User: Fold this.
Amino acid sequence: MPDILTAADFLSIRPQYKNEQAEGELPAAVEHLFPQGTMIDHYFVTPAPSLLADETITSFGTVSAVVFCQQEGGAPWQVHFQEPTMVKDLCIDMPDAEFRAMLSASSVTLPGET
Assistant:
């Protein structure tokens, strides 16, 4: 099982707004924190084949969605993998620098951040 996720574990991320889901993409949400509260944005993310082939992911079952949750105080992001029934949850940490590298590689800036 990967203990920590890196930017290389995801090939791309892009906003869902007015976009169609492409082959290989999964629906994703990014929950990020602001002094005024939490904001949730919707994206499509493409996991790397090596991540989806990892024994922990394959034994979890079919991944139908990914949720990236920012934690307070610079703690690593929690990345939740969800299966179709949303009963089971697999959570793996992703350092902020790796999350930001993933966004940068796809030229994505989170709303409210410049």
Notes: DSSP finds three helices and six strands in the chain. The CA atoms of residues 30 and 96 lie 13 Å apart. The chain has a mean pLDDT of 92. The longest helix spans residues 96-105.
